[in-house]
Design brief:
The chain has 379 residues and is of the alpha+beta class. Helix content is 52%, strand content 16%. It is built from eleven helices and ten strands. The strands form three sheets. Strands 1-4-5-8 form a four-stranded mixed beta sheet. Strands 2-3-7-6 form a four-stranded antiparallel beta sheet, covered by helices on one side. A two-stranded antiparallel ribbon has the order 9-10. The relative contact order is 0.12. The protein binds acetoacetyl-coenzyme A. Acetoacetyl-coenzyme A binds next to α5, α7 and α11.
Length: 379
């Protein structure tokens, strides 16, 4: 067993930290207030290689391992979880599935541009009546000669308006249930594709979340990923990796709030001394640091399993379940350490608390993670 990072891991972590401090921190409060997507920053993240980190260099990716990816996700999420969810979706939910299951033409046409961050992708599984119960897909793709006709609605789609390319999960044979679900690559400017209203959210307000409507959108057969009926498995396998990205995001939100609370506790004085010299604050810092370290170990273990080609779905569900709880607990305590200052926007921790909540909901709620974990235990 070896707990050391490699030189490459440290270089990636430091580059992500530097980028987050210099490029994401300025303006993060304004973007949150006005719900503005970080377009310029995401473009820069593409140029630096953060949008397709694990993709093979022959498709313009960084060729990095999953440990590098979660380290970068943690650093970006410490400062701006809206930017990091765009990064996570592009890396884990879009590039991964295309690289693993797409054909050469699809990789040439779409993956090469997505991996460079030249364009952004979105992953469309959720529907108004199919969130946790993902097999209940109502969106249909009906075969008609050499194309499919796509009809239906998708909800809560991250990168919903910013994306150019969408991985869409749809029912091709309703009689077969989840075995009749297929996956397609759809472009935004195709006729019949309408981007619905932008959601006004509690947190990750800079992230671009929309519903999408499809009316007779013509998808060429060559844009189906894998065989007909393969879509649900693709979605589930994609989410195994996606949940790891969100676990790293939750870890980063927690670590960001903790670092702010620690720094503040050394500056702020009460009763004649810095508040970090009061045991009430010391115990909070000790609890936060311990929980964050435990979450980090779960995230790294799941990333390591994935890099070794071992089964990691249960480990990534555990990492997401635990890290998202730590994100909530730590951000609330970080506000408490800041007292009244923690309740105002200028000190960042109230935003981190609002951002933390979504990590217990998207890419499978905490309750869904418990289903995945308990099925693993009992199988
Ligand atoms: N990995 C691989 N395969 C899996 C899997 C996993 N983690 N979970 C289920 N499957 C497979 C099963 O093996 C089964 O395949 P077979 O029939 O071939 O054996 C198939 O999927 C159906 O599984 P179940 O019979 O277990 O189906 P179920 O309805 O009882 O439960 C579920 C499935 C695990 C609850 C699933 O519906 C689920 O994960 N729901 C949550 C959906 C989710 O995470 N949505 C997130 C939306 S994306 C998002 O949030 C992105 C964003 O914008 C940030």
């Amino acid at each position: 067993m070896n707990f050391e990072y490699t030189e490459e891991h440290l270089a990636v972590r430091d580059a992500a930290r530097e980028f987050a401090q210099t490029e994401l921190l300025p303006g993060v409060i304004e973007r949150d207030t006005h719900a503005t997507f970080p377009h310029a920053q995401i473009k820069e993240m593409g140029a630096l290689g953060f949008m397709g980190m694990m993709v093979d260099p022959k498709y313009n990716g960084g060729g990095m391992d999953t440990i590098s990816y979660v380290l970068a996700m943690e650093e970006i999420s410490k400062i701006d979880a809206s930017a990091s969810v765009a990064m996570s979706v592009n890396n884990s939910l879009v590039c991964w599935g295309l690289e693993k299951y797409g054909n050469e033409e699809q990789k040439e046409k779409y993956l090469k541009r997505l991996a460079k961050g030249e364009i952004i992708g979105a992953f469309c599984l959720s529907e108004p009546e199919a969130g946790s119960d993902a097999t209940s897909q109502k969106t249909t793709a009906e075969r008609n000669g050499n194309h499919y006709l796509l009809n239906g609605t998708k909800n809560w789609i991250t990168n919903g308006n910013t994306a150019s390319v969408y991985i869409i999960i749809a029912q091709t044979d309703p009689l077969k249930g989840h075995k009749g679900i297929s996956a397609f690559i759809v472009e935004k400017d195709w006729e019949g594709f309408v981007v619905g209203k932008k959601e006004d959210k509690l947190g990750i307000r800079g992230s671009d979340t929309h519903s999408l409507m499809f009316t007779d959108v013509k998808i060429p057969v060559e844009n189906r990923i894998g065989e007909e009926g393969f879509g649900f498995r693709l979605a589930m396998e994609t989410l195994n990796g996606g949940r790891l990205g969100i676990a790293a995001q939750a870890l980063g939100i927690a670590a960001g709030a903790y670092e702010l609370a620690l720094a503040y506790s050394k500056e702020r004085k009460t009763f004649g001394k810095p508040i970090c010299q009061h045991q009430a604050i010391q115990f909070k810092l000790a609890d936060m640091a311990t929980e964050i370290e435990a979450a980090r170990l779960l995230v790294l273990k799941a990333a390591w399993l994935k890099d070794q080609g071992k089964e990691f779905s249960q480990a990534s569900a555990m990492a997401k379940l635990y890290a998202s709880k730590v994100a909530m607990d730590v951000t609330i305590e970080a506000i408490q350490v800041h007292g009244g200052y923690g309740y105002v926007k200028e000190y960042h921790v109230e935003r981190l608390m609002r951002d933390a909540k979504i990590t217990q909901i998207y890419e499978g709620t905490s309750e869904i993670q418990k289903i995945v974990i308990s099925r693993g235990i009992l199988s």
